[in-house]
């Protein structure tokens, strides 16, 4: 009998159940939905991660830019403060206060727009005089502006307690005033302007009967020595042109343009000038017949600059002189509106405005542009 080489395995009901085929509890559609849901979740997580990383990167860049471009408010320094009339028996009756202050923009790449600036002088917290200082102006980065102000008509009588205290302080050799400057500023970074910020600067100063501030007397002396003067504008030539040539040889008065030559000179010895854009208007009688302009420029001391300005579109002037003879001359008014700033050493003053006018005679028969005309335009600086 052959030996039995197989190992007997006892089969139980539990083992038989394990060998049965597996049964699915979910359909194929269910598993497909689970796969799609898993992919959507992964894509959503990737998008959120990218967005958060980008947001973090932009936040870091913005923080670095803020640290590098963080705007600083302008810095003011008192250069001179004087009061005329401190030796009056009744105190400051009809005294005059003059002061010079520098405004420094210490920002590296940020400019500052100033609205109109006012200065107020206080004694014992009582305002004794207020004056407007500057027109609205723009101060570029790393720039210093010289601000000069005067307060007239100041009155502080000795008939009250503060007046008596003022006289007593004056007898002691010194009087304390407070100067306050107020304005509204905006910062400019490239093409972006910030919101408006209210600005005020205050400084305590002590003056005596010699009317000299301990700090800054030298600056006042230099300012008096330099004493800057306004630039001069002189008309040196005018030419009426028709049909592209001088109208002397043509009776047809189709006036195409008028050429004007203006000489701008800086009469100062040690003071340069930054000129703003100039706007020139021609008038024939009370009628505006042409407007033109030239760009602003920098002019060194004792320098002279020639500017040639062309006026086109003269239909109204053409109509007004259509019946005039070729030998007739007409009287034109020249008006110049512009502004400028002085530069004294490394300091720049605030903006000054000019409104200049003058009358020139133009020949309809053709007058050369360079014919030795020398008409100085006159008006005031305000």
From TrEMBL:
- Report whether Ubl conjugation shows up as a keyword of the record: no
Which parts of the sequence are annotated with region: Disordered?
A: 1-20
Which residue intervals are annotated with compositional bias (Polar residues) in the record?
1-14
Q: Does the keyword Transmembrane apply?
A: yes
Query: Membrane spanning segments where?
Result: 43-69
Q: Report the Pfam families cross-referenced here.
A: LEA_2 (PF03168)
- List, alphabetically, the InterPro entries matched: LEA_2, NDR1-like
Membrane topology is:
Single-pass membrane protein
Keyword terms, alphabetized = Membrane, Transmembrane, Transmembrane helix
Localisation per UniProt entry:
Membrane
- Ranges for the Late embryogenesis abundant protein LEA-2 subgroup domain? 101-202, 262-355
Any one GO BP annotation for this protein: defense response to other organism
Q: What is its main location?
A: membrane
Q: Which GO terms describe its cellular component?
A: plasma membrane; plasmodesma
The name under which this protein is listed is: Late embryogenesis abundant protein LEA-2 subgroup domain-containing protein
């Amino acid at each position: 009998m052959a030996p039995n080489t197989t190992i007997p395995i006892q089969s139980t009901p539990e083992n038989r159940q394990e060998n049965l085929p597996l049964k699915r509890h979910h359909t194929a559609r269910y598993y497909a939905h689970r796969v799609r849901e898993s992919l959507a979740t992964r894509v959503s997580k990737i998008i959120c991660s990218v967005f958060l990383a980008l947001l973090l990167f932009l936040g870091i860049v913005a923080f670095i830019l803020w640290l590098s471009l963080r705007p600083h408010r302008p810095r003011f320094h008192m250069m001179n403060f004087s009061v005329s009339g401190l030796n009056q028996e009744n105190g400051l009756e009809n005294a005059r206060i003059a002061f010079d202050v520098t405004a420094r923009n210490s920002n590296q790449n940020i400019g500052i727009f100033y609205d109109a600036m006012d200065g107020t002088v206080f004694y014992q917290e009582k305002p004794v005089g207020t004056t407007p200082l500057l027109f609205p102006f723009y101060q570029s980065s790393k720039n210093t502006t010289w601000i000069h102000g005067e307060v007239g008509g100041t009155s502080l009588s000795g008939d009250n307690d503060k007046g008596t205290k003022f006289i007593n302080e004056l007898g002691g050799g010194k009087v304390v005033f407070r100067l306050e400057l107020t304005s509204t500023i905006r910062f400019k970074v490239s093409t972006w302007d910030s919101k408006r910020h209210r600005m005020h600067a205050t400084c305590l100063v002590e003056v005596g009967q010699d009317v000299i501030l301990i700090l800054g007397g030298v600056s006042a002396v230099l300012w008096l020595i330099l004493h800057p003067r306004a630039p001069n504008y002189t008309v040196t030539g005018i030419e009426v042109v028709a049909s592209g040539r001088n109208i002397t040889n043509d009776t047809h008065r189709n006036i195409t343009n008028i050429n004007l030559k203006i000489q701008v000179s800086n009469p100062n010895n040690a003071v340069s000038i930054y000129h703003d854009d100039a706007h020139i208007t021609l008038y024939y009688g009370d009628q505006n017949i042409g407007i033109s302009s030239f760009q602003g420029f920098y002019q060194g001391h004792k320098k002279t600059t020639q500017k040639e300005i062309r006026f086109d579109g003269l239909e109204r002037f053409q109509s007004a002189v259509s019946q005039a003879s070729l030998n007739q001359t007409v009287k034109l008014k020249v008006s110049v509106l512009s502004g400028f700033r002085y530069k004294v050493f490394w300091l720049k003053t605030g903006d000054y405005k000019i409104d200049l006018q003058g009358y020139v005679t133009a020949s309809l028969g053709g007058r050369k542009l360079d014919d030795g005309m020398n008409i100085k335009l006159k008006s005031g600086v305000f």
